[in-house]
Amino acid sequence: MLGVEFSRELRDRVIAGDITLTVRLWRRAKVRVGRRYRVGPASIEVDAVEVVPFSAVTTDDVRRCGERDRDALRRRTAHAGPVDDDTPVHRIEFHVVHG
Hints:
Mean pLDDT: 94
Oligomer: single chain
Strand order of the largest sheet: 1-4-3-2
Low-confidence stretches: none
Radius of gyration: 13 Å
Distance between the termini: 15 Å
Largest sheet: 4 strands, antiparallel
Strand content: 25-35%
Number of helices: 3
Order of helices and strands: HEEEHHE
Shape: globular
Helix content: 10-25%
Number of strands: 4
C-alpha cells in the first residue's frame, strides 16, 4: 500500500480523523478516489480529487486542512513551488479507515 506524506505536526490529527482534506501542488494527481493510502500506522481512503484554482479553497476547506488561515495553507502548499490565487491545486477529500 502506498503512503501519503503529511507534515509531522499534522500527522496525528490526520490519524485521529480531525483533518479530512489536503491541498497539494502537483502536476498530476498522485492519489485516486476509492484507493487507500498509508499515513503512519493508519490508512486513509480518498473520497474526492479535484483540480481547482487556489482561490476556490474555502474557509471550511482551510479548517478541514488543519490550518489557522488561508495564508498558512498557502505557505504549506507552496513548499513545492509558488502558489497564487490562480495556481491550480489538487483538493483531496479523505477519511481515516479503521480496522
